[in-house]
């Protein structure tokens, strides 16, 4: 085989370096979120009420985001450049202040097939708040919900062993199933299974058990998912 070596353009190198800096930023942020969780009685109480074990919290790297100011100071202490915090989408410039959309929420790090944290999901804890219950990282080259399955990096080995995957809707569904011994479980982070997500599953198995919520939206999503899976010759 003749190896053809292509010269990488300056622009491609810059894009690659930017992605690497973003991944490094998310890795540091995950560490800070875990630290903030240990210091937050509110966050610990929430997961306790949801009956999550400390082992599950540690395994999935769950965390908590305090105020934007607290997060900014903690990341600066870890020498993360402010420019990277903005370019990664973790912070946005709100007039003169740096603002993080995840503040005052519990954090669910989202990893890709290679087990790299590429974004975050976050749930608000204040039941009286009018803000959205869940928010995610902004769409980017690294974070595209249509091309990700929550929990896949933890479930890969079990899916291969069981020759089957359990498909659920959300973060907590994955964690609770895992906590009770069902390790071959992933979530499509919503109720719309995509072709890209099916292709990820096909790398590991062609057998899927759909376990969406038993409400009207979940039932409709189950029917749509079955159609997509059958089109791809899945069982």
Q: From the helix content, strand content and strand pairing, which structural class follows?
A: alpha/beta
The backbone outline, from C-alpha atoms, is globular
Helix-strand topology string: HHHEHHEEEEEHEHEHEH
Using only C-alpha atoms, the radius of gyration works out to 19 Å
Q: How are the SSEs placed, and which strands pair?
A:
Blueprint: H1 10-39, H2 41-49, H3 54-59, E1 63-65, H4 68-77, H5 82-87, E2 92-94, E3 97-99, E4 105-111, E5 117-124, E6 134-136, H6 152-162, E7 165-168, H7 171-179, E8 185-187, H8 195-202, E9 208-210, H9 216-231
Describe this structure in words.
With 235 residues, this protein is of the alpha/beta class. The protein has 9 helices and 9 strands. The model has no long low-confidence stretch (mean pLDDT 93).
What are the salient characteristics of this protein?
single chain, 235 residues, alpha/beta, 4-stranded antiparallel β-sheet, 9 helices, 9 strands
Summary of the model, kept short:
The protein is an alpha/beta fold and 235 residues long.
